[in-house]
Amino acid sequence: MAKSMPRRSLIDGGVTPVAMSVTVPIRNVALEQEVAGWGDLANRASEFSNMFLQIEAKRAEQKGLIAGAVQAPTYEEVELAANLGKAVDLPGDRESFNIYEQKVYEASLAVTESHYATLATVKMYEAFAEAEGLGVTPEEMKDRLDVVVNSYTEIFSSVSPTSGAKLHLNLIRERNQKFVSYNKSWHADNKTKRQTDSIVFAGEAIENMPEVFSGHIHGTHISLSNSLNFERQKLLDKLVIDFGSDPNGEKIIDTQMDAFDAKRKEVEIEWLAENTVHGDFGLHYHSYLTPQEIAKSLRGGTDGKLETGDGFGDDVWVEGYEAPAWNMDADNQYPSDLANTMQHLYNRLDSEGRDAFAGLVASKVEDKRKEQNDAAAQADADEVALHQGDADAIYALLDVPRNELNASVFEQADKLLKESTMPQTKGPGVNAHLNKTAIRDHIAKLKKEVRDSQTGDDTGATAEEIISYNTAWKKAADPTVSKTEFAAYMHENRDALPLSGNGGYNWTDLRNTKTVFRDEAWLDFDKALADGRKVISAGLRPTPAEKMAAIGKQAAAERLMLKEQLADDLEARYGNELRGIRDDGGDWKEQSDPFKPDNLFDKYVKLKQQYAKPLFNLEFDENGMPRERLYGPEAAAAEAAAVKAEEEAAAAEAEVARQEQEAAAEVVRLKEEAAEEKRQAKLREASIDDLRVLAETLLPDKPDIFHKAVLALIKEKGIKLDPDIVEGNDQGALKTWVINVLRELD
Amino acid sequence: MWFMIAMAVVAAVGAMQKGQAQAASFKAQAAAMEVQAKWTRFQGKQEELKQRKQAADELESTLMHQARINAVAGAGLMDPFSGNPMGLKIQALDVGGTNYAMAKTNAIIVRKQANAAADMQLNQAAQARQAASAAKIQGFLGGASAGGQAYMGYQQTSTPSSSGAVT
Predict the structure, then answer these.
(1) N or C: which terminus of chain B has fewer CB atoms within 10 Å of its end residue's CB?
(2) Quick check: B142 contacting A, CB < 8 Å?
(3) Residues of A in contact with B153 (CB under 8 A)
(4) What is this structure's pTM?
């Protein structure tokens, strides 16, 4: 067999590329160790150095802080700079590399900041205290504190903006604390203050209420009542605002408002009374009316009746009201605002208020009258003093020994008398001795005496007697010297003058003079007596209206008569007792003055109260004013009820009388009827007999004649039958009657 | 204060000495690298020679193959179905040529690689020398720095004397 040829194959073996790596030993352990050793040494030394550096830095910091604190500006320097608005220079250097310098600056800055903060706080306290003292609002307080905060922050910011911001933050925090505290206390204080103000306001409103009345201008758009209502609402609103949230607020508000209302009522009554008596509306005041009559007229007019125009009794608001002439506005025909206001206020018064009003009016009228009397008395006194001076000058001229009286003296006396303003003659209110006629008579008497002495006629009076006469004449003419006193004077000087004769220079003449002059003084007594009697009898004298109302009413008339009798009796007893006091030389003025204690007037007022109550159920107050009739709607109603009861009693009495009369008439009538019945019975009996005769004789045969005969019989006997039967107009009825009668016969 | 300065001086000296030592170390490294580079070239040469010997061996092997083909063919033992002797020779030459060329190339590669490695090592040696120089300078700078730092610390922490002046 063939053998295969050897073949060359890569599989049988080949050459492959080599891979060779070369390692280069580059480390040198010794040197590396040396490097590490030196490095470690350097590091450790460096660490030591750094450690010591830190220690030194700390030390420098401490030194710097201490030095900075020491070298920092003082408080005074900071304050001065702040006041001047300048920044302070700080030691150290904020930007320095040196720690010490940095810390010096830092410390001084901290100290300065502290100073600024302290200073600002102090200023803030000062501003706070000042503002607190002024009681400013919290907002204003905040503004004031902000001024301090901003000013100091601004100044300090120029030193260090960062610290300035920090200071600002602290100051703002301080300011906020103060503001919050002040705000709280302010509101608390303000509430107390407002409450106090409200009480003061209420007091002023109450105190000044009379000025609201006196200052009110009538005729404006706002009425007085509206003004008062406005004041009241204003006060109420203020009190509610300031006390509304308080636990006791309601009580306080009520107290104040009650005081306001009470004062309003009081002032209203005072104002009404004042205008009634003294104002233009005071037409009810007349000099001839007593206070009681004035008060009465306020309620019902001067005649006691309520009529249009009488005043407060009228309602001026009603349609068709015609204001009286005195209450007319000049420009239009409407009631004046003043009158309307008074009317309105009066209508608002209750019974108690009207009582007080009437009493006040009476008091004011009395005061006014007294003022007028005093003024008149003062005028009289002035006039008397003037005339007395003139008279004294003339008397001094003539009051010389008779041989010194001559034509020149008389001429001077005449001249003085002529120049004097004293009245010619005695007149009302003029002293009798202070008139020209009286003095002229005196001069004439002296002239005659001188003339008689010159002609040889004996005047019967010596010069001493004339002087004594003149002296005594002055006493006699003096109204303040009573008759008793003058009588005593006469007794003491009885030898100075004769009782009569002596040419008129005698005691009798002087006594007569005293009587005349004393009578003049008695006019005052009579007036006082009349006034007192009016008051004492007030409420007892019937008014014309009462008299009219009592006409035809016996009970009412008797009541009026009894009241009048009581008035007469009290007046008479008062007059007698007062005259007795006067005649006995007592102080009748004191006794007749209602304002003096234990006076006679009060005594009789009490008597009136004592009697009037049980007799007439009338009550009078301590001034003698009738309560029942004049004051208040209740009293008026009670009075009306009393009168009505009287009228009803009278009516009942009349009714009883009428019934009695009717009963008596009935008795008479019954008696008459009984007699008539008896007579009729007799007639009927007689008639029946006659009828029987007629019936027996005529009826059977002549019935027509029978009927005629019956009719004639009826007429003759006067039997009462129906007129138609009697007259024969009703034959049927006649027949029936006859049949009935005949049946009775059967 | 003086402790801080003294330590700073020590640190400065240490830093300088450290720089010196590092410089010496780098120099030593450079020298070693240079030696390594020489050795690398030498090793490369050896490897080249090995590759060249392998090339020669390959040529010899190729010749042996051709001879064996000739011998086989000469004996008549040729297989008609498996090739002819010439073809087989060509094939043997082809394989042998390839191996030879590969071995030659390997020799070149080895040599060049060794040279490159040596150059690289030389380069590293030069770098080490530069590093040594730098380390020396750094040592000086570190020492100076430590001194400066000490001076600065002194200045920073100095406080005024009792007279108040800041020293």
Answers:
(1) C
(2) yes
(3) 49-50, 52-53, 56-57
(4) 0.38
